[in-house]
Amino acid sequence: MIRILIADDHPVVRSGIKQILSDEEDLTVLGEAENDKEVLQLIRTQEWDVLILDLNMPGRNGLDILQEVKRLKPHLPVLVLSMHAEDQIALRVIRAGAAGYLNKECAPEKLVEAIRKVHTGSRYVSEAVANQLARLVAGGKEKAPHELLSDREYQVMCLLASGKTLSEVAETLKLSVKTISTYRARILEKMNLSSNAALTYYAIRNELV
User: Fold this and answer.
1) Structure confidence by residue, pLDDT tens digits, 148-165
2) Alpha-carbon distance 98 to 77, whole Å?
3) Higher-scoring residue by pLDDT: 119, 147
4) Is 192 left (phi over 0), alpha (psi -120 to 50) or beta?
5) How far is Cα 18 from Cα 111, in angstroms, rounded to an integer?
6) Distance from the CA of 97 to the CA of which of 25, 117, 121, 152 falls in 20 to 30 A?
7) Which residues, 6 or more positions from 112, have their beta carbon under 8 angstroms from its beta carbon?
């Protein structure tokens, strides 16, 4: 029996996933978490076979949570679910340690297939993402501006683009305002943008927020 932990702040999403998996004899949802503290507490105190993780939960950024989970339980397969377009975020979460990535609009059978696959130790990515990985290895694709950012810079960019102030970003990430201001300047320089408004426009156009 594959023991599954679902981490998503929307009860309807957790309920939907449980309903999809309820007909599968080898899959059982034994835990649910709706924020970063709950998921990390459950990871520390109980054993799981697969974690289904939403990237956009209250509290810490989803990439932060993913990296902390992999620090605590390096061998725990993490299947990331998100509303982000896979071509914008899948490579980043795979590099951060996720075993697979699915868009929340995927067909139910894809979710079941992905859980079983990552449980065996394999990675689950769509054909499109596999092609992206192949091009990346071959060096045949020019990186988009946001792909030049480090994971922390990417987190700061998404928070700023979603309308948060420097102080709010600093509070969310538990960093100083001065540090966030430095990140902001670095992000704008790397992406060749001039303002938060330009950053927001870029993020919306590329479906990053």
Assistant:
1) 888 888 889 988 998 889
2) 7
3) 119
4) left
5) 11
6) 25
7) 20, 21, 24, 27
Return residue ranges of the chain for CATH 1.10.10.10.
145-205
Confidence of residue 116 (pLDDT cuts 50, 70, 90): very high
Q: What is the mean pLDDT of the chain?
A: 87
> Looking up tokens 């540090």, which residue turns up?
179
User: What CATH class is the domain 145-205?
Assistant: mainly alpha
pLDDT tens for 33-53 read 999 999 999 999 999 999 999
Instruction: Using DSSP, state whether 173 is helix, strand or coil.
Output: helix
The residue type at 11: P
3-state helix, strand, coil in the chain (%, to 5): 55, 15, 30
Which tokens belong to 148?
Answer: 């030049």
How many CA atoms within 13 Å lie on the side-chain side of 69? Answer: 37
What are the tokens at 77? 């397969």
* Cα dihedral 90, 171, 153, 204 sign: positive
Grouping H, G, I as helix, E, B as strand and the rest as coil, residue 203 is helix
Residue type (1 letter), 178: K
Across 96-124, average pLDDT: 91
Q: Does domain 2-138 have CATH number 3.40.50.2300?
A: yes
Share of the chain above pLDDT 70, in %: 91
**Whole-number Cα distances in Å, 19 to 16, 23, 112, 126:** 5, 8, 11, 23
